[in-house]
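User: Hi! I'm working on a homework problem where we have to compare a predicted structure to a textbook description. Could you give me the structure for the chain below?
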Amino acid sequence: MYSEEEAQRIKDQIIDKVEIGQSLLEISKNENMICQDMIYKWLNKDAQFKENYVRAKRYQSLFVWERINGVIHNLKLYGKALTNEQVQLARLEIDSDKWYVSKLVPKIFGTAADITNVQINLNQITGMSITNEGKVRDIADKAVKLLADQDQ
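Assistant: Happy to help. Predicted structure tokens:
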């Protein structure tokens, strides 16, 4: 099928894409990429690839937190001009992303006190009252440190 060099190049591409937030489904849809089933077979057979994939998923959690911060920033920037529907969509996006990172790295973003203390009051969008706003940044900083410690 693939030479060792080709397979390693593909595996490296997969890891790079996972780190920046792409799912295996998205990656496998690329016409120059292998199918999702083959990725799962490689994950089951290649311990190093699996270890790199797990690490990439941890790093992916930081990108998701940055996406949450981006949504919050946009809400603050455009708060008064947003419709109720846009606010509700932003709330859903934030809640979905918070849930996702809590599953990716539960030790850092778990459902314990840290993540539940980040309460974003989108009902008061006109004033963009965000309680514990600094807490989001603190959690992201903590995540960077913990992930770096785990890789050493």
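For your comparison, note the following. The mean pLDDT is 77. Residues 60-151 form one domain. Good luck with the assignment!
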